[in-house]
Amino acid sequence: MLRTMWLLLLLLAAAVLGSPAGKVLHAKGSQHHDDKHASGRSMTRRSVDMTDAKVHIDDSRLPRDVVPTGYHLELHPFPSEGHFKGRVRINVTCREPTNTITLHAHEQLHIAHSEVTVKHLNARADYPFNHKGSSSVLPVTVASTKKEPSKQWYVVTLAENLKKDANYQLDLAFTGSLSSDSTQGFFRASYQLHRTKEERWFAAAKMSPSNARRVLPCFDEPDLKAPFKISIAIAKRMTALSNMPTSSTEEMANMTSWSWVHFQETPPMSTFSLAIAVLDLESTSLPTTTGGVRMSVYARPSFMSQVQEVLSKAVPIMETIQEYLTEPFPLPKMDIVALPKYADPEPADHWGLIILRESDFINDEILSWRLADEVVQQWLGHLTTPAWWGADARTNKALANFLATMAAQQSWNLVTGYTLFYEYSRRHPHAGSGSQEEYTKITRTQWLFRMLNYSLSGGSFKDGLRHFLQDKKFKTFTEDDIWDALTHQAHEDVTLEESITVQQIAKSWLSRERFPVVTVTRDYHDNSASVEQHVFLKERPQDMQERDSLLWWVPLMYLTQDNLDSGAPHEPVVWMKEEKLASLSNLPGPESFIVVNPDEIGMFMVNYDQQNWGLLLEYLQSPDQQMPTATRAKLLHDAWNLAYGGELNIATALNMTLFLEHEQKLPVWEVTFTMISHLGRRVSGTAAGLKFEDYTRCILTRLYNTLGEPQPEECPKKTKLRSLTHFYLCQLGYQPCVKEARASYSRWMQSEDPDAGNPVPESAICTVFQWGTMEEWEFGLQRLVQLPASRKQSERHYLLKTLASCPRQEEKVERILNITLLEGNDNFTEADARLVLSMMSGSANGYTTLLNFLSRNWDDLKQRFGSRPRMWEYMVHSATEFFKTLEGYNLVSELYVTRQGEFGTAEQIVEQALRTINAEAQWSDATLPVMEAWLDSHIPCDVA
């Protein structure tokens, strides 16, 4: 049942709370915890777009015998007609004698081959881009041209070798289409004026990570930086934007309704930084900001009221970054565009021009984070640029996220960070979720920067970045350049031993898709402690071959009762230098606790001896406790996860929930909600699981009553906490919520045309399917079957997921299995069936019913799916993999024995499932009786 909380958390955050939505992590199947708040809220795709960039890691690199030194681009888009034409003159330097010039051009870009020319410039290397010609030039004969579509290369072969160190100019004319169904490259769209309904067309480009080649022939790799002179043709009433301010305009001689807009020359930049937009929008500007930068925001007329506060948010962010990096904003202007019909969830990020969705401007928290993230990358991404995709781009993104969090004045989001603990403690991290792998790696790297900021000291960290940027501006860098700069500064400031490098520290955290748990065992007689680290695995079996060999560089910092000020400096007392054991000395006496890794400085959990856990709980329950919020959340998180992994007695972990009686801080409860979902799913279907639901419902009811009714202008965090609490209570069967949801659903059932639309809040549908009648569930099934073609498919997808995952009653689950797997109903595809099977893994009711269904209908299902091995294997996996107890082991074992030899390609799947369940059952046998006894003594809790 608690699985459904994961399914609906994004919905609640986006629809009820207005919180940012973006996938950060998957648990199993489709159980995602979504959060795009700052800090790694974090795993967003910007500047060097990490999703697309990943596919370019192994790209064939262009030859380096000819490199660009400057571009002059003339571009003439026709937004209403859907095409563009252009001409680019590229100055190049020959590094080694060659008779070919190889650059990028997308296969859909049409180049006038017969018009390609090459000239030898007898003048200096700087390119003579003026409208009256240049100094002496000599033509070079072009022998042939060709495209290599597999590499997106364009090769110009010459009749003679180019001379080493000589300068040449390549001249190409081209045409292309403006895309209407994609934002990759040059695209177009239109909007209607609010009153007159007049259609207004516009065109813009998204160049990252490697889409400049869709717009013009160019050297489309990040390290091949060169300055650009840009000219854009526009019709009357249109506005052209690029990286730099306008230098001049002139009417076209042969097209009087068109004008050329010429822009100032850019600094050297990568092609993905190139900004092109032709707009029919209104604008408002601040003439100058600190440093003389002009900031403007563009939007359609009827949306201008929504963007009035943008500049007041962007300017302080820019000033904060300038002050932190001691580097002025690198361009004379910054334009921010609220682009109509821009559907890409990721901004089109260019140097001096940021394109956002209109919806990004609606929520202040989203907007602050978007602006901070994009503004930071004007320095880290455009001024200095990662040399290649992969580790360099990932490190750049993580560092930009870290600085954006600081600039937006948003705190580290614990839940987002804790998703990494979940992922990296699984048997197979990222299994079936490759699309999330880059994002988790970025957040892990961001967490590393956060740790270094603490452990090296904030001053050394900041000065190291300043020196890095000064050394690498207008250039490219590798991740080692950042580690080297931080190492040099830390050695100079004596905040890191001379024998240690930041690269050593970073490598231990970034090269392993695991994390450690640090166990602190205090000696209360001599005020010391022994410290041990080992890899943490939450899922069984835990027999990793390399488990004992994985060690990290761990900074051991701690707080005591006399030093709880979270603003106090945290200095490493000891570095565990990839060693298994260490020690701490000069600790407080036996009457005082210690907290190692406070505020979640490093990516590791901490376990303690029972006496220290007891001292912590005693303090947390005291009325005058002053433990920092993030540290309280960490203690709760660590205790529950350690118990989940079999490293801490479950009673100790549950004891840590007792301080929640007086807790009202959102970060602590966000961790609690996450743990409720994970642990609740783990004990689903057991007596302890039912009692855990009762206890959870009890403490959440107490919290909900304490929060009271919404008040005008109350703190947004309090509003969010109330909404989250209500959401979880609904899933736990809180009767006022169930009654409200069923009443809303009843109005839908009684409507004249129920297929016209769904008037029920989506977050309430699961509550009805879970706690309502079979008749109510069947009504939902009919809405799915009869969904009109005009309705969004996302509505159908949501209904199918909730119909399958939410019910507690076996007959509802059997009904959806029958209709999708056995009846051959044309309304359901194989993809639908796989989705239903995925939903079954979320609760004991689901996978137990599925196993029984498979056993009873074995022959029919084998006949239907036996010839489709992938589907058959997935069904067996979904029916057998997720049991956790001895009773579950016996059920799967009975099926295995009864049907041995009939599983076909799924034979190994069920054998592996039995091994896994056997290991899980050991945890259940040891833990559930203790858990049940603890819950018996704490139910009911005192409800305010």
Descriptive report:
By secondary structure, the chain is α+β, with helices and mostly antiparallel strands. The chain contains 27 helices and 33 strands. The strands form 9 sheets. Strands 3, 4, 6, 7, 8, 11, 14, 16 and 17 form a 9-stranded mixed sheet that branches. Helix 7 (434-455) packs antiparallel against helix 10 and helix 8 (458-472) packs across helix 9. The longest helix is centred in the C-terminal third of the chain and has 30 residues, at 907-936. It is globular, with a radius of gyration of 31 Å. The protein starts with a helix and ends in an 8-residue tail after the last helix. 49% of the residues are buried. The model is unreliable at 1-48, 123-128 and 130-134 (pLDDT under 50).
Write the layout of secondary structure elements.
Elements: H1 3-17, E1 23-26, E2 32-34, H2 50-54, E3 66-78, E4 83-94, E5 98-104, E6 110-111, E7 117-121, E8 137-140, E9 142-148, E10 153-162, E11 167-177, E12 185-192, E13 199-206, E14 228-235, E15 239-242, E16 246-251, E17 258-263, E18 276-279, E19 282-286, E20 294-299, H3 310-325, E21 333-339, E22 348-350, E23 353-357, H4 364-379, E24 385-386, H5 391-407, H6 414-424, H7 434-455, H8 458-472, E25 476-477, H9 479-493, H10 502-510, E26 516-523, E27 528-535, E28 553-556, E29 558-560, E30 574-577, E31 581-584, E32 594-596, E33 605-608, H11 610-620, H12 629-644, H13 650-655, H14 666-682, H15 687-707, H16 716-731, H17 735-749, H18 762-771, H19 774-785, H20 793-805, H21 810-822, H22 830-840, H23 844-856, H24 858-865, H25 869-880, H26 886-898, H27 907-936
